[in-house]
Design a protein that fits this description.
Length: 171
């Protein structure tokens, strides 16, 4: 159980005896592996994902909480309505999580990732009931640039006696 007030809690993020976390922004939510590959850009404006790894240290995390927000701001900043939503979400001992914006999921109107704004995934690691560390990803930007299409043509050739054809493309 966590401490009941912040006065009783101790931020141990910078103390050497406590294991540090590496937090990576991820965009491939289906094939997350133990390898933490940090991404700088995402093509979606409706989801943020992260994966993290725990370093060595005398004191290891007992459970994690996560949040999202504008990089460099407070957890929840720019994405969550802290009056109506819990800023920190429990994730137990999992090493990955994602936040998906759904209709009505936030009290902030039009909540979605904005282009050219860096967003971060925040992680709070609890080492015991009173000691925690806060870590964050290095940030991710949305890239809403539409793909550049080039014209090309397809020429189909088919032998009259077979059901298979051969396609040739030219650009």
């Amino acid at each position: 159980q966590k401490c009941t007030t912040t006065d009783q809690c101790k931020d141990v993020t910078d103390l050497d005896d406590f294991a540090k976390l590496t937090v990576c922004d991820v965009t491939d939510y289906q094939s997350m592996s133990d390898l933490c590959i940090d991404m700088n850009y995402t093509s979606t404006q409706c989801a943020l994902g992260a994966q993290w790894s725990v370093g060595s240290g005398q004191y290891q995390p007992q459970y994690f909480e996560w949040s999202v927000g504008v990089k460099g701001g407070e957890p929840g900043s720019g994405l969550l309505d802290v009056l109506y939503e819990s800023v920190w979400k429990d994730v137990g001992m999992s090493n990955l999580s994602m936040y998906v914006f759904t209709t009505g999921s936030s009290h902030l109107e039009g909540s979605q990732l904005q282009p050219h704004v860096p967003y971060a995934f925040y992680l709070r690691a609890w080492y015991n009931t009173t000691c925690y560390g806060i870590y964050s990803s290095d940030g991710i930007l949305t890239d809403d640039t539409p793909p550049e299409l080039t014209s090309y043509s397809v020429k189909e050739t088919r032998n009259a006696t077979t059901t298979e054809d051969i396609d040739f493309t030219t650009s």
